[in-house]
UniProtKB/TrEMBL annotation:
InterPro entries the UniProt entry points to: Calcineurin-like_PHP, DBR1_C, Dbr1_N, Metallo-depent_PP-like
Family the UniProt entry places it in: Belongs to the lariat debranching enzyme family.
Keyword Transport annotated: no
Sample GO molecular function, one term: RNA lariat debranching enzyme activity
Biased composition (Basic and acidic residues): 387-396, 486-506
Gene Ontology biological process: mRNA splicing, via spliceosome
Disordered, as annotated region: 387-462, 474-539
Record protein name field: DBR1 enzyme
Length: 539
């Protein structure tokens, strides 16, 4: 089965699908499935644009609304996770996942599905330590804090995923797992993105929560985006016993969707020929959702997940074969996800712009149906109830010092998450600025026309095999990279993209890692662009 994987598409669905169709016409390659690793931007209307954490100059409608309205239909089944540049109000309607348009499926805050027997998981958002242990309390209309915290990863989603026992074939995260750069060609990465050096050398680049999941799940493939650079790594995991077969993960980070970028990758994945062509629920994941339902929290209060520390009567929420069988019986062994997409907001009409429309908190019928079917808590319904009771106000009311106290850890590894350097901390000139002083480039266009004279090469590069220690700590050996300029290549993927002579890269620079220094400046086409000191403005 051929699977296409895309990085940050920034709402340019027309261009992304046109690229796939062009690939089919010119090279007779037709993907069976498209995966997108965040910053999908499922923007339906002007209200959705106001819920996207980017400066007003980047709030472009793009083309998703055409698929939402039914004017167009995705030519290939598309599954995506959320990033940090999303219409958060729209995605929040589907905390457990669901259809955002016909043939386009969102995995939710975290989720696992199956397609042709291939097990696909993912976690949405990016890691920020000060919000990690809070509940999903945000709801529109957002303020300046909640518009960003809404897409921050929470410990409950990581906890749920860590209850899985069955193997995962493909996993997606938006930001990179921390330490992954030590298992690829680090020298080449730093040559392309020299501003990563400080964080790479201090081992603070990336998400510690994603690193924890990588260690636990050990998927065959792991795909990420966020940092707007292509990077491959190959890791062989340690085994827990002599009887356990060794496992390895092929990691690939995808570039953003621009003409000069390799933003699309095609891989061949083993699948079940007898399986149908429908997207399906994963029975173990549904059973885990049922088992952890009592842990749902919709408050700003920081809390730890249950662990074996003498404070919790139960800490293991993994499910038994019997629980999985019960899910299958509830579904009459029909795991097909119903095509129950429903319009829940007015669609953008170019002839009738609605610039002053306010976003509202909506309960999606898909979520209502899903929760009723499996006996789960509708998070949005719970938030509305809590608002009526006055316990949720959608604002950060804690003092900054209290937030810092809350940022020191997860339930599983409280000492591991004492930093707040998530992937893109301060100085990535390719990232969209979240203040009005950002660059003026539109980052939501992508290539339609790979060069006919140079067809895409069916290969992806992975580094030499290295053993990943349990703690993901970096040894002195790990700090050494291959001296080869080219990574070892494995015939598992196809690169798509072309270079543009009209390239206009967005650049910026920030203060030091702690955000304490004065703002520096760089030149871009003889114009100064200043970075924001606020940590979330560097996401």
């Amino acid at each position: 089965m051929k699977v296409a994987v895309a990085g940050c598409c920034h709402g340019a669905l027309d261009k992304m699908y046109e690229t796939l169709e062009l690939l089919q016409r010119r090279h007779n390659v037709r993907p069976d499935l498209l995966l997108c690793c965040g910053d999908f931007q499922a923007v339906r209307n002007e209200a959705d644009l106001r819920c996207m954490a980017v400066p007003a100059k980047y709030r472009h409608m793009q083309t998703f609304y055409r698929y939402y309205s039914g004017e167009k239909k995705a030519p290939v089944l598309t599954v995506f996770i959320g990033g940090n540049h999303e219409a958060s109000n729209h995605l929040q309607e589907l905390p457990y996942g669901g259809w955002v348009a016909p043939n386009i499926y969102y995995l939710g805050y975290a989720g696992v599905v199956r397609f042709r027997g291939v097990r696909i998981g993912g976690i949405s958002g990016i890691f920020k330590s000060h919000d990690y242990r809070k509940g999903h309390f945000e709801c529109p209309p957002y303020n300046q804090q909640t518009i960003r915290s809404a897409y921050h990863v929470r410990n409950i989603e990581v906890f749920k995923l860590k209850q899985l026992k069955c193997p995962i074939d493909i996993f997606m995260s938006h930001d990179w797992p921390r330490s992954i750069y030590h298992y690829g060609n680090k020298n080449q990465l730093l040559k392309m993105k020299s501003f990563f050096r400080q964080e790479v050398e201090s081992n603070t680049l990336g998400s510690p929560a994603a690193s924890e999941l990588l260690q636990h799940l050990k998927p065959t493939y792991w795909f990420s985006a966020h940092l707007h650079v292509k990077f491959a790594a190959f890791m062989q995991h340690q085994t827990n016993s002599k009887e356990e077969l060794p496992k390895a993960t092929k990691f690939l980070a995808l570039d953003k969707c621009l003409p000069h970028r390799d933003f699309l990758q095609i891989i061949d994945v083993e699948h079940d020929p007898s399986a149908g062509d429908s997207l399906e629920y994963d029975a173990e994941w549904i059973a885990v959702l049922k088992a952890t339902n009592s842990l749902i929290n919709v408050t700003q209060t920081s809390w730890n997940m249950p662990e074996n520390n003498g404070l919790h009567a139960k800490w293991d929420y993994s499910v038994t074969e019997e629980a999985i069988k019960e899910v299958l019986e509830e579904l009459n062994h029909n795991l097909k996800i119903p095509c129950n997409f429903t319009l829940t907001a007015a669609c953008y009409d170019p002839s009738k712009p609605q610039k002053k429309v306010e976003p509202v908190h909506t309960i999606n019928p898909q979520t209502t149906e899903f929760c009723a079917q499996f006996g789960l808590t509708d998070i949005n319904d719970r938030i509305q109830q809590a608002k009526e009771e006055g316990s949720v106000r959608g604002e950060h009311e804690e003092e900054e010092e209290e937030e810092e106290m809350d940022s020191i850890g997860s339930a599983e590894e409280p000492s591991e998450y004492n930093t707040d350097n998530s992937g893109l901390s301060s100085i990535n000139p390719d990232e969209i600025m979240l203040d009005e002083e950002g660059g003026d480039e539109d980052l939501s266009t992508c290539s339609v026309d790979p060069s006919p004279d140079h067809p895409p090469d069916f290969s992806a590069s992975f580094s030499d095999i290295r053993i990943m220690p349990d703690s993901m700590a970096v040894s002195s050996d790990d700090a050494m990279d291959s001296t080869n300029e080219e990574l070892e290549k494995s015939a598992v993927s196809k690169q798509v993209g072309e270079k543009s002579l009209n390239e206009r890269p967005l650049k910026r620079i920030g203060g030091n890692e702690n955000g304490n220094s004065g703002i520096k400046k760089i030149k871009r086409r003889n114009q100064a662009i200043y970075a924001a000191e606020d940590e979330d403005k560097t996401e």
